[in-house]
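REQUEST ID: PR-0412
SUBMITTED BY: lab tech R.K.
PRIORITY: routine
TASK: structure prediction, single protein chain
INPUT:
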Amino acid sequence: MSAPTTSSDGFLLHGEPFRILSGAMHYLRVHLTDTPDLGPVKP
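STATUS: complete
OUTPUT:
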């Protein structure tokens, strides 16, 4: 397994451009109508 490398444009993996994405979501900030499969949220 090769490790990502850097270039002036960003990251490369096997010599090809590679983007690293990351994120987080707080479950209390998501409205229940947007996620009906989560069920009730306990206070």
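NOTES: Strands lie at 5-7, 10-13, 16-18.
REVIEWED BY: pending
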